[in-house]
Amino acid sequence: MRSIRKIWYRETTKGKEKAMATHTRVLMIMVFVIGVAGCGGGDALPDNERLLNAFQQGRTGVWVSGHGTVAQLIGDVTIAGEAHQRVVVNVDDSLDLIVRHSVEASERVPFAQGDPVAFQGRYEWNGRGGVLGYTHHDPEQPGEGGWIRHDGTTYD
TM spans, by residue (predicted)? Predict the structure, then answer.
């Protein structure tokens, strides 16, 4: 009788150890997956709230970030001796924004119509939606200046 109890105890203990090891592995995998998802597993899109508020309130000279879809490519324009790339970005149903990006202060962005894009820069209001400029790195500006994120690459 004693040997049956020892065998039963040993088998029960092994089962608990296996179960505990399995639970530990599952927990470690869950922690890893949550950590990867929360720490840059994908680029989070910036919120459009500040930009939409600036448009609705007619504010200008405001530093904003946001995201949208490239609706139209517009030809380059020269401003103060610098070439600027221009695109219309549909932010939402109420706002189409011209994004103006200096190709002399940063690289040209390979935009295509329908591309998702995120951005940060200085917003200038107008009744048609406004213009976003200063999308290049500038340590003298809030947040070190602006940027454009397109197809996994940040242009600043």
Answer: 26-45
Statement to judge: residues 78 and 34 lie in one domain: no
Looking at the DSSP bridge assignments, the partners of residue 98 are 88, 131
Based on the domain organization, do 1 and 36 belong to the same domain?
yes
pTM: 0.70
Q: Answer yes or no: do 100 and 137 share one domain.
A: yes
d(CA 85, CA 56): 26
For residues 146 and 137, give the distance between their C-alpha atoms in angstroms, rounded to a whole number.
6
Number of domains the chain is built from: 2
Amino acid at 53: N
The answer on 79 and 139 residing in a single domain is: yes
Cα–Cα dist 48/35, whole Å: 26
- pLDDT per residue over 2-14, tens digit each? 555 555 455 555 5
DSSP symbol at 156: -
Domain interval for residue 142: 49-155
What is the torsional sign of CA 83, 85, 88, 89?
A: negative
The HSE-up count of residue 21 (CA atoms within 13 Å, CB side) is: 6
Q: How distant is the alpha carbon of residue 153 from its chain centre?
A: 11
